[in-house]
Design a protein that fits this description.
Elements: H1 2-23, H2 25-44, H3 50-76, H4 83-122, H5 126-160, E1 166-173, E2 186-190, H6 201-213, E3 218-222, H7 233-240, E4 249-252, H8 255-272, E5 276-277, E6 281-287, E7 290-296, H9 312-320, E8 327-330, H10 337-342, E9 347-350, E10 359-361, E11 367-369, E12 380-384, E13 387-391, E14 408-415
Parallel strand pairs: 1-14, 2-3, 3-4, 4-5, 7-8, 8-9, 9-13
Antiparallel strand pairs: 2-14, 6-7, 10-11, 12-13
Length: 424
């Protein structure tokens, strides 16, 4: 009983802390960025007098606050972001990762110093200690400088070349519940377009042209079509309306669409496009005389990070459908997949994670990324009991116009009842 009580107390404290952080997210972010910028500045200019170290952080925070307020007012007035704000935010965001690297390097340096002190008491002479100590200081400074330079260059690539890359991922899926007549059915999947200040009209026109070149039978858009309440839907959605698919375009809403006003976004989509917008709804289409049920879940997350793993609407609709007919599920957040697989949903399509947007190639061939901190389904293909989930890395960006080892993505999934699954 005592352990259960402690666990519940800890869970309540953690939940309260999470709610507080998300309620004051941008203030916490501003404090974090300001502290990181000052940490980097202190490292690069260690000879600054101590009064500057007292007043400086306050000045940096104040400057960031005024700059963020200025750019927000420009967005309200529908002014273009411009090069200066983009460069400023790129430097600020890069500073966070540089500061984190400095902290890790400093912790390693401190641990090495402590280990050296223990060795001194055991066997080393004073002369040897001084030589090793001096070499340790020089080595740590070299490591810190080199690491910060590498991070800066990597992020510069991500802000320029990396964010401009577009990948078309092609898979063949052995969906046994699909009729043989549906072999070769081409489902094209896009997600997280994020219409707003981080997307230009000509970029969206290029995406639409590339998708149409793929000649989809079914086109699915899994949410976050609009980035914020400030997005100019009237000028962007007519471009998006150019998307074509043989059996229709099906769209759902994501958490950003809800932040922008779910009813407003859904109404604009229905007015300006021919898409079928599904908000806890389903439709049945006939392909070569065979039914395909398409279920679209409305986003119901608490915030951008904390997921909702179950959906009562999905449970109800699956009970009402014939068990031997294929179901295609559209869910902005991928954590519904265990419920979908348990219900026999052949294919679930999701987005939301952007594939982490910042990824690092790892030793096992995977791309480790930031999305792994809040979901077990961060990017790519998953399989459970013959049911599949694909998590798209998104066409747009949010927050920062930055992508590393995570190109913008269009996914082409081809139904092959007898085929082996192909790697992305």
């Amino acid at each position: 009983m005592f352990r259960v009580s402690v666990r519940r107390t800890w869970e309540r404290l953690w939940e309260g802390l999470a709610r507080s952080c998300f309620a004051h997210f941008f203030r916490v972010l501003l404090l974090t960025v300001s502290a990181a910028e000052w940490c980097v500045l202190w490292w690069l200019c260690p000879a600054l007098p101590w009064p500057v170290h007292v007043v400086g952080p306050i000045g940096v925070y104040t400057g960031n606050w005024f700059f963020a307020s200025w750019t927000y007012r420009r967005r309200l007035a529908q002014h273009p972001m411009g090069v200066l704000p983009r460069c400023y935010y790129a430097v600020a965001f890069t500073s966070v990762f540089c500061a984190a690297f400095l902290i890790v390097t400093g912790a390693a340096w401190l641990a090495a110093k402590m280990a050296l002190g223990a060795l001194t008491a055991e066997a080393l002479t004073t002369h040897t200690v001084l030589a090793v100590d001096s070499g340790l200081d020089v080595g740590c400074r070299w490591l810190a400088d080199s690491g910060m330079a590498l991070i800066s260059l990597t992020f510069a690539y991500g802000y320029t070349v990396g964010q401009a890359r577009l990948r078309v991922s092609r898979l063949q899926l052995p969906l046994a519940c699909f009729a043989a007549a549906l072999d070769g059915l081409r489902i094209v999947h896009i997600s997280d377009i994020h219409i707003g200040s981080n997307l230009r009209h000509e970029e969206l026109e290029g995406f639409v042209a590339r998708i149409n070149e793929l000649r989809p039978d079914i086109l699915c858009i899994t949410g976050d079509i609009v980035d914020s309440p400030l997005a100019a839907c009237e000028s962007y959605l007519p471009i998006l309306a150019g998307l074509r698919a043989r059996f229709g375009v099906f769209a759902i809403l994501g958490n950003h669409d809800h932040h922008a006003g779910a009813d407003r976004v859904a109404a604009a989509l229905r007015r300006l496009t021919a898409f079928t917008v599904l908000r806890d709804q389903h439709v049945t289409i006939s392909i070569e005389g065979h039914p395909l049920h398409i279920v679209g879940l409305d986003d119901r997350g608490q915030d951008w990070a904390r997921e909702v793993p179950g959906a009562s609407y999905l449970a109800a609709v699956l009970m009402a459908m014939p068990s031997d007919e294929p179901v295609l599920l559209l869910s902005h957040r991928p954590d519904v997949f265990p419920q979908a697989a348990a219900g026999g949903v052949a294919l679930t399509l999701s987005g939301h994670t952007h594939g982490g947007q910042i990824g690092v190639p790892w030793f096992d061939g995977r791309i480790r990324n930031l999305a792994e901190f809040f979901t077990a389904f961060d990017r790519g293909l998953y399989q459970r009991d013959g049911c599949y989930l694909y998590v798209n890395c998104g066409l747009g960006v949010t927050g920062q116009r930055l992508r590393l080892s995570t190109p913008r993505e269009i996914t082409v999934l081809e139904v092959q009842r007898a085929a082996a699954t192909l790697a992305v």
